[in-house]
Amino acid sequence: MKNRKQQIRTFQTAEKLAEKLAEEISRRLQEAVTARNRAVLVVSGGTTPKPLFIRLAQKDISWNRVTITLADERWVDTTDPSSNEQLVRTYLLQDKAEAADFNGLKNDNPTAASGEKECHERLTELPRPFDVVILGMGLDGHTASLFPGSPGLREAMNCDARTACIAMTAGNATPERISMTVPKLLDARQIYLHITGKEKINVLEQALAGGPVEKMPIRSILLQDQTPVQIFWAP
Q1: Beta-carbon count within 10 A of 89 CB
Q2: What average pLDDT does this structure show over 207-225?
Q3: Which residues contact 110 (CB under 8 A, 6 or more apart)?
Q4: pTM as predicted
């Protein structure tokens, strides 16, 4: 894994960032539809992407040819306020983007571990490489649901891993989660890291400086040469 210099695109406000990123993602998705008749968009949860989702949903592209899926999910009912699927349905699958197809990660199995197989099968049915993957980053350096010190993290970051997803926990926190593995996240034409806040830029600089990937899993995305990564940041 190499440490390559990353360009950080900086914006004055989170709103300006969201508009520019929505423009870029919509362009890439439409180019994919034109070239291959389909496009696949992978998104993350949390509060940061809400303004992006709202703007992206209003973009005039061939949404009926776009499939949206998740980088990770909490193992809760899809109507739960903490569900990433619920977030996507509320903010992204609206307006023009309502015509998109959605492929969630949560299934009817009682635990994330027991749901791995079905989740893997769903993800492997999608065209690859993914056209666009949007990731966030936590203050601990996690991305998707790949948390430092979590059981299963080593397996999730194994470049030879054949599974598309893996059950994860955020330390001792509940609920369980399921996350795409690093090889699956990197199986993309373009990754965007979308972060806001002054604390995040300090974490980002620490991650880019190098060090053990297990301590800051975002390094598995930033410090590699397989898939292009663009970083969008606003205070």
Answers
A1: 17
A2: 96
A3: none
A4: 0.96
